[in-house]
Amino acid sequence: MTQPPTNNSLVSIRMPKSLFLELQRLSEKNHYLDVSEQVRSIVREKWLEAKSPEAYQIKKLRKDIAQAVKTKTEESAQKQLIQELERIKEGLLSGEKK
After folding, report:
1. For residue range 18-68, what is the model confidence (pLDDT) as tens digits?
2. What does the alpha-carbon distance between residue 80 and residue 60 come to, in Å, rounded to a whole number?
């Protein structure tokens, strides 16, 4: 059995080109510098899930709820902005007719 490293270690893995390209796309979307950061993030997430499934599930639910609240707030703000712009437009159009 290999001894655990005391510092960072280099791990090499083989993967299909399609998987690498998908990880590359995901790393750009998630604003990682390179694919290795994306892989570390995935490994860390899966490790936390395996280490404590209940705590991971609670963390995931909190994240999902926060995202839902944020999305709802953004949608509400967009609707209010559209309504306000419509009122301004109507005001400008009614001002031109006079």
Report:
1. 999 999 999 999 999 999 999 999 999 899 889 999 988 998 899 999 999
2. 30
Q: Which of 61, 81, 57, 80 is nearest to 69 (CA)?
A: 61
Residue 32 · residue 41 · CB < 8 Å: yes
Distance, CA of 26 to CA of 20 (rounded, Å) = 10
Burial class (CB in 10 A: 0-12, 13-18, 19+), 90: exposed
Residue 96 tokens, joined = 């031109």
Name the residue among 22, 54, 50, 49 with its Cα closest to residue 35.
22
**What gap in Å lies between CA 13 and CA 19, rounded to an integer?**
12
User: pTM of the prediction?
Assistant: 0.57
